[in-house]
Design goal:
alpha/beta; seven-stranded mixed beta sheet; two-stranded antiparallel ribbon; 7 helices
Length: 201
């Protein structure tokens, strides 16, 4: 596949929210679901394509996205987590020069942060940029599209985190998280986010 000059976005939203006990993708900030908000902000970066990876029970999530332009990919094995979702999206984005990867459960997400990642990745020696979470590279992150061609199959697929963290000092732009350390995995996370005014009651 020939490389395209623009960037693609992969929005990972296939998780079953088992620890939270309700779909975190459908939690709301300012009346907007986190899933719609993440997709809308991703589209503000001007991607050639936005690929949203959903789980097998996706009807409620499709309804939340019905006014947006995106391609849907289903990760039938949501228990495989982020690596399985990246693998499911690979054929849709591998030909792009840059791929921005993000999650739907970071209520502090902003288009400015994503634009800084894209610009920083263009300047970095590795072509990568990531968000500094607990001092380490995390998502949102930008990686070269050909990284998707190199994803191992099956149980050995561990995604991009280790590869990003193995890059030499100075080869990777690490952007301060700016509040994105807060993600919503547990009822305690949800209560904390609501207390901070980051999610609707």
């Amino acid at each position: 596949m020939s490389e395209r000059g623009g960037h693609a976005v992969v929005l990972l939203a296939a998780g079953s929210s088992t620890r939270l006990g309700q779909p975190k993708q459908l939690l709301r900030r300012d009346g907007e679901t986190l899933l719609h908000r993440a997709a809308r902000i991703a589209l503000e970066t001007g991607p050639e394509v936005l690929v949203v990876v959903l789980g097998s029970d996706s009807s409620a999530y499709q309804a939340a996205l019905q006014d947006l332009r995106y391609e849907m990919v289903i990760n039938e094995n949501a228990a495989s987590g982020m690596p399985g979702s990246l693998q499911a999206a690979a054929s849709h984005v591998a030909g792009h020069a840059q791929v921005l990867v993000l999650m739907s459960d970071q209520p502090a997400l902003s288009s400015a942060h994503l634009q800084c990642l894209l610009e920083g990745a263009r300047r970095s020696r590795s072509g990568c940029a990531a968000t500094r979470l607990q001092g380490l590279a995390g998502v949102p992150a930008v990686v070269p599209g050909d990284w998707f061609n190199a994803l191992p199959q099956g149980a050995s697929n561990v995604g991009f985190r280790a590869r990003l963290r193995a890059l030499a000092d100075g080869a990777l732009l690490l952007l301060p998280a700016g509040g994105m350390e807060l993600d919503i995995d547990t009822p305690q996370d949800l209560a904390h986010a609501r207390a901070l005014g980051m999610l609707d009651p």
